[in-house]
Structure formats: C-alpha cells, structure tokens
Amino acid sequence: MQQSGAKAKASPAKQGRVAALDGMRGIAALAVVGYHYLMHGPTMYPELGVPVHAALVGREGVRLFFIISGFVIALSLRGSTVSRFAVSRFIRLYPVYWLGLCGTFLVVALFGPPSMGVSWFDALANITMVQGFLGIPHVEGAYWTLGVELLFYITCAILWFGGALTPRRLPTTLYAWLGMTLVAVVVIPREQLEWSAVAQNLPWFMVGIVALAIYEGDRRPAVLLFPAAAIGTVALAQPKIAVFGALLFATVMLVLLWRPLGLTCRPLKFLGAISYPLYLLHQNIGYVLLLDLSSRGVYRPLAVLVTTTAMVALAALVTHVFDVPVRRALRRRLLAAPGRAASAETSAPEPGDDRRSGVLLAR
C-alpha cells in the first residue's frame, strides 16, 4: 500500500476524485437521518406516523461510511507512528463524541420519554465508546457503529505496523482476515448484537482498503476479485444489504476512477464536514423534537424538514465552535514536534493527518 515518491503526489484531478468522498459522506449522513426520522422513529414511537418503508434504504448510509473509512484510514496510516496514529484517532473521535453524548443524555433526560433514556451508570459507561461490547445500552442507538469502527482502527493499525499490509502481503492478509470474519459470521449468535455487527460489517472496511489499492493502480486478480469475495461473505447473513453494498462500492470506484459526479459541490462538502457531529447528535434529540412537533399537530413532512434543518444547524455549530477548535488545540499540544510553530495546523498535512488528499475524516 505504500507508494514510491514518484507516485505519491496525486494529480489535481485525482485529488478532486478523492475529495468527492466527503460529498458521499454528506449524502450518507442525510440518508441515515432520513431512515431514523421516517422509518426507525415511527416504528419506536407510533405517534410520529406510519413508517415509510422506502426510507429503509437510508440504512445503507452506514455501509458507505464504513467503505470510506476503510479507504481513508488505510491512507492515513502511511508515514505515521503507533503513538501518532492513536493520538490522532483519539483527537478526531472522542472530544466531540463526549460533547454529543452529554448533550443527548441531558436533552433526553429533561424532555424525552422515559423509554428513550438510560441510567447515569450506563451514560458514564458510554464514555468509553465500547459500551456495546460490555452489554451496556447506548445513549443513542446510532452509537453502535462507533465501536465497530474503533475495532477496525485497532485491527488495521496492528496489521499496518506489523507489516501485513504491504503491497506484496495485502491480498494474503485481506483474504485471511475475511476468512476469519466468515467463521465469525457463522459462529457468533445474532443475539450477541455488537459482536455479530462487527463480523457482518468488517468486510465493508476491507472493501474500502481494496478501493484504495485499485485507485492507486493495483490490478492484480486477487485484489480485483476481493470485493466480490467480501460482499459474498456479507450475503451469507444479509443478502439484501450485500446487493446495496455492491452498488455502493461500484459508485465509490466510479467516483475514484472516473469523475467526482458533482460530489465536490459546496453543499455536499459542507455536509461532509459536519457529518460526524450530525451523526452523533441527530437521532434522540431529533426524536424529542419530532415528538414535540407531533404533539402540537405540526404537519409531518414539515416536522421532519424542521427537525432535519435544526439538526444540521446544530451539527454545524458544534463543528465550528467546538470540534474544529478543540482538534486544532489538541493537535498543537499533542502532535506538533518540539519547537514546531503553533501554526502547524494550517500547514501541509502531517503523516497521519485527517486532511490527507483533501479528505476530512469523519470517523
């Protein structure tokens, strides 16, 4: 996966295609919001109206997040160190997660129905981000994906720093990893939701790693055939999701190898930049607002529009007032080399920096 110096610098056109992944992330975030407000929410709270089954497709936004994460994490590991990668991931994931966690817990405790809330103990356990693996309820249902992502980051870092993701070893490593995942899909009972979710979703991250290899010119048959093998593994447990996932992967490769398809437009770049805070904040706070609007007799489409707009505005506020400034400050303090100027954040991206190739890591 490492490149020679001659190949490391991508052309502006290629950089634009990679930057288009941010636009895809923005679409994925809106898709998940739509699924929660139109399908999942009404299923949990009938007063929100009849579930819109067409919104089920919005769940595939999560799969798209996973594919993009596989691509970008594999890219961000290059030139990094174990400590630098770990610190950069902590900076990117945890501060805004803790803010979203506290905000969601308080809003639900003050204004939400009792069935939506969790105990103080459960909320404190959520600080770790691995509460699902401990059998502890999530403060927000959407948080289940964060533990899956975290486990992927750890596994990918171990493989990278252990030398298992070099170009020569990449196919062997990925097929072995996929084989273990296949065994896990078959063996782990579906009742063990978190571990079952890991087994069923890790192939999407692997597909993202392969997307990077193909994007950079790797045309070995073992690499080109891997996405089919990974999607086939998913199909054993989730046939319908595998079909949608195949379409998502094809779209990602179309963008990476051909053209951005309009995904670099300002609205989508904006949504991509705020997608992580939006993901963290939208579900239960949105449900509380939707329930309030419903109790006031507000027309359902208008209630969904108002709630979505409010959550986007809240995510943008959190991004610009808290997330970005805090990350900058922590990077200067924890990642800048001794004697480095405080303006390092505005200079060229350092190895392992989330801004590599124009992509802002959302997760």
From TrEMBL:
One of its GO terms (cellular component) is membrane. InterPro entries: Acyl_transf_3_dom, Acyltransferase_3. It comes from the Bacteria. Pfam families: Acyl_transf_3 (PF01757). The chain crosses the membrane at residues 20-38, 50-75, 96-121, 141-161, 173-189, 195-215, 222-237, 243-258, 270-290, 302-322. Residues 19-319 form the Acyltransferase domain. Keywords: Acyltransferase, Membrane, Transferase, Transmembrane, Transmembrane helix. One of its GO terms (biological process) is lipopolysaccharide biosynthetic process. Residues 341-363 are annotated as: Disordered. One of its GO terms (molecular function) is acyltransferase activity, transferring groups other than amino-acyl groups. PANTHER family: ACETYLTRANSFERASE, ACYL_TRANSF_3 DOMAIN-CONTAINING PROTEIN. This is Acyltransferase. It comes from Cellulomonas aerilata.
